[in-house]
Amino acid sequence: MRAAQTLARHAARPSLRPLTIVPAPRIRPPVIAETEDDWTPERSAESPYVQDALAVDFSLRTDEEVFGEQPTRRDDLPDPRDWAAHIAQALVEVMAGVRPAPQLLRWTTPEVYAVVARRAAVSARRGMPPTRRTVVRSLRVCEPADGVAEASAVVVDGGRVRALAMRLVGLDGRWRVEALQVG
Fold it and tell me: With contact defined as beta carbons under 8 Å apart, do 97 and 120 qualify?
């Protein structure tokens, strides 16, 4: 009974048009044949590319320029004052031997990291445990150029008061310590 009702419903619908097959349009441009009149040595030497090949010249830029660290504008970076306070605290703690040096690898250049790690090794050989926690007392930041910040901090390290100066450069969306001076 149900099958008869389904057939009756389908028979009542208007019939659909039959499908027509249309050839796909040609999307490639026609090949331009060079004639002997058009050929000149200058013309063949000016373009080393072959038709239907991707015309990209990678010889102009090195891999380091394309895939290396990219400078970041100030608008795309976090607040340098907060960041400088945190990194100053971490730098002094590493140099005092309280914090492991590899924590700073991502945030410093290899040259700055080498200096800080060397000072951390000297502190570890001395073997004196810190009496008090290192505290950043004051911090000043100036931005001489877009994506560059220079910070100076006064740090109390145990019973000593130290000055810390650093240059921060924006690379790959983060600040990185490019130069460090500890007094």
Answer: yes
Q: How many CB atoms sit inside 10 A of residue 165's CB?
A: 15
- DSSP SS3 for 140: strand
Q: How far apart are CA 149 and CA 178, in angstroms?
A: 10
Q: Which of 67, 31, 75, 65 is nearest to 50 (CA)?
A: 31
- Mapped onto helix, strand or coil, the DSSP state of residue 69 is coil
Q: How far apart are CA 57 and CA 100, in angstroms?
A: 45
- Per-residue model confidence as pLDDT tens digits over 97-153: 888 999 999 999 999 999 999 998 888 888 766 667 888 999 999 999 999 999 999
What is the domain partition of the chain in residue ranges? Answer: 74-182
Out of 3.10.450.50, 3.40.50.980, 3.90.1150.10, 3.60.140.10, the CATH code matching 74-182 is 3.10.450.50
Tell me the pTM.
0.62
Residue 93 CB neighbour total at 10 angstroms: 20
Are 74 and 173 in contact by the 8 Å Cβ rule? The answer is no
Closest-CA residue to 155 (of 178, 130, 175): 130
Q: Report whether 174 contacts 69 (CB < 8 A).
A: no
